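Most newcomers find our protein records easier to grasp once they have seen one. A learned vocabulary of local backbone shapes supplies the integers on the structure line. Here is such a record, shown just as it appears in the course material:
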Amino acid sequence: MNTLAAQVVDSPGLDIDPRIIRRIENADHVILSGASSAGKSTFLYALRESHPEQFSAYQPVIPANWINEGMQDLPSKSLFHINMHRPIYGRMQSRPEYLYSNAAAPVTYEEYASEPVFKQFCKVAQGKVIALILLTPQAELVKRITERAVVEPRFEDSSKPYDNRTWSWVAKLQDMSETLSNWLRLLEEKHIEPVFVDSRDGKFVLLETIEEAKQSVTDGQFRLTEDDIKQIWTNEPFEYQRISDLVEVNASNFVQGDRTSTSQEIFKSDFTDASVLDVGCAGGYFCFEAEKAGASKVVGIELKDTRYRQALLTKRITGSNVRFERTNLYDLDSSEKFDVVFFLNVIHHLREPMRALELLSRITAKRLYLEFPTLTDHKFLSTISFGFWNKLLNHVPVIGVSLEDEAGQTFVFSQSAIERILVRNTAAFSRVEFVQSQIPNRLIAVCHK
């Protein structure tokens, strides 16, 4: 028996709930899943020590990095050992400089579904498969990871150092309950029965429901230290974001570029108990400002991975209740209404702006804030040779066709065009007021129902 095995088996208090044994004893294969340091290897050693005749047949234990496309089958009664955060490796490899936002964003269903080793396992596994999911409260998980020195000697060179830095940030920043939901969605699709196990304090106790499972990971939340926050804001290459004051960290300290005057203009209105949707929210600045202004429900949607993940990272730091979704504008449920909708500096990136405005007009219950470039926008002017006339054209209902490849925009609009589209032609809004954006040659249309 290797050193780690001896240490685990001899540890006092190790105990496996007999109900867990009954759930897995007739399985052809068992997936042993959980976060790094959730206790997967400890569970395995304890299982074999406490039930040697029953479970010695689980040979071999197959770690994820042993699965490859050339594998044709699995031995019966095998056990597949996988880190539930494994897809984060892919994020780190593609964009290693975004350590903290990569760590903060839950693993998505799409990431799980495209994970090569899991796809191959499902392809070759025959018979009944049970997935054990080991769950540990956040603070305990961080402590385990911080104190850990090496990888499992059974799977790799025992002298190889453990990546405490990556996995401790994942444990500190991750919303494990959402990651769990996405893992369960994939298991259900593959007809794999989940078995939830609370692995705190060296004991393994069966959890009967998904509600109990999610409660297990939300118990004992780890509180970020001031040093943690300083590391994040010093080293994460935020797009348009920074924290202005690290002494007291909350959403009021959060600023994005220089949008202060736009924020002041928008939040002149009363947002008390309002529901707010921010379409193309980037790092979430206006979402956090709406929450600070008294909005009771705030949702931000963003398609770009990096900005979406950084919004989640800022949410974790500030303790905000804003909900962020990585979704397309056109996939929004038009039956869900929001009192206020922000559509700021997005419309000129769309190929179907009319479709977007029609959808948002149905979603908006009270006010839509639409920020858009006019015909005197400098990017648009760089694509044409008669810019002198554009100031005059801003007073007539004109839509300018820009160039995506040169200017990075599709269309620009005159003030009159926006008013005709939203009030005169569609009657989507009763009136529109225009205020100057702090971005040169752009306007904000405040559209009232």
Summary: The domain at 232-448 is CATH 3.40.50.150 (Rossmann fold). The first helix runs from residue 3 to 10.
